[in-house]
Amino acid sequence: MTVILIILIIYTVFLNMTLLFFYKEYRLCKLELDLIKRTVAEAEAGKFITKTIDELETYE
User: What stretches pass through the bilayer (predicted)?
Assistant: First the structure.
């Protein structure tokens, strides 16, 4: 009975550590994806602003 209890405790700790690791990896990937999206949005906004400034200079 004690052996089964010890095995169950070890299994539970291992499972908890594994889930915690994958959750941290998931959050890290999500943060990286958000950063990529923000960088792309800022780059597109920069292109739009540059294009608009160029168009205004042609009208002057």
Answer: 6-23
